[in-house]
Design goal:
single chain, about 280 residues, mainly alpha, Growth Hormone, Chain: A, 12 helices, about 0% strand
Amino acid sequence: MSTNPNPILTNEAAPDLSLSLSLPFRSSSAMALKVLYALDAAKIQYYHFKAIIIAGMGLFTDAYDLFCIPPVMKLLGRVYYEDKPVPEKYHIPRVVLATMLGTALLGTVIGQLVFGRLGDRMGRRHVYGISLILMVFSSIGCGFSFCRTKTCVLVSLGIFRFFLGLGIGGDYPLSATIMSEFANKKTRGAFVAALFSMQGLGILASSMVTMVVSKIFEAAASKNLSGNHTPEDADIVWRLILILGAVPAGLTYYWRMMMPETARYIMCVCVYLINYNNSIKIS
């Protein structure tokens, strides 16, 4: 009685090539499932809280950059719309105001689609760094908006706000994905909730920074202030508020580059490469 060398085949069955070809793919999938199970069952460790802080700082910066613009527009109205008649004095037209507020949101939508896709193809760590660099330089660009004339400032600010929105849009899906891939199965929901709670702190920080910077300027220029005239130095206030948004983004970039790529993404890439190599050998 002959023995069958292939354990999948029975003594009487004809060779099934599709089953034998699927063995390498089954082994790699089984290895991936073991790794994913170990990650899901891992105990809470220090790196979990480190990931919350680092990824959360990205959402903190997003909220700061998005919600600091309404008071900044009030300051722009005070600086650049002082020469208007009394009804429109210090008030930015609604069309201009809506455009300035909407450019960053438009960039956010596009950034989510573009950077989210790139994160799946190039890795979370690398693409997350690109989005943070874009946020840093865009925040600085918003503060150093070209010229001192009204039209030139608003156009350049709108352009830089759009690119800032691209970076913010890339940060949203990548921060959530990084946190969910670092977390285990039991605490994933709580960790992601803690991550997005950093947005509230970012909104609070944007209001506090605006009030503190404005108060410092008011105290420094109290002798030159009047109810009917805005000093030229007031143009520095809104620029400083926008530039300060680059500080948490830059710190987040440094901390994120110190962290490794998520294990779940590495596992998915390894499985893909194993299956790809096996398919080449089989063909």
